[in-house]
Amino acid sequence: MTLRLPDPRGSRAVLIGTSRYIDGKLPDLLAVRNNLEVLQELLTADASGSFSPQRCTVVQDATDPRSVCGTIREAAMTATDTLLVYFSGHGVLNEDLTELHLALTDTDESDLRWTSIPFQAVREIFETSPCPNKVLILDCCNSGQVLDSLMGIRATAGEAWRIRGTHILTSSARDLPSYAPPGERYTAFSGELIRLLRDGLPGRPELLTLSELYGPLSKALALNGYPEPRQQGSDGYARLGLVRNRAADRRVGTVPESHTGEAQTDTASRDTRGEEIRFGPNRTFARVRKWGIGLPIYLTLLVTIALNLQKGDTQDKSNDHLDLTNPHHWVAGLSFLSFIAVDWALGKRNPTDYSLVLRPGGLEVRYGASEHFSYPWHRVSRCWLRRKPATRLHGPRYDLMVRSLPGVFPHTALPNTPGPRQDDTEDTLRFADLRRLATTPEAVETALATYAGAAWTPSPNIAVHQTSISEAERVFTADRRVLATVGVLGTTVLCWQVPHLFVRPFETSVALLPLVIFALSLTAAWFATSRFIRPARLVVGAAGLTLTRGELEISYAWTEIERIGIVNWPRGARHLGLLAIRPSASAEGRVDRTNMLLPKLAPGCLTLCLLPEVTHHQQSLQAALSRFADKEQLAMPAEAWLRISAKAPKAPGVGVTLRGRQPAKVSAFIGMVLFVAPPMISTHLPSKADWGQVVDGLLLSPLFFLGLLAYFLTGRHHVSFHVGPTGITLSAFGRARLHIPWGDMDRVGVVTLSNPEENALVLWPRPGVVIPRSAWLPFRRRHGGLRILTLEKYRIKTSPEDMDQALARYAGRRHTQIALLR
Question: pTM of the predicted model, to two decimals?
Answer without folding.
Answer: 0.39
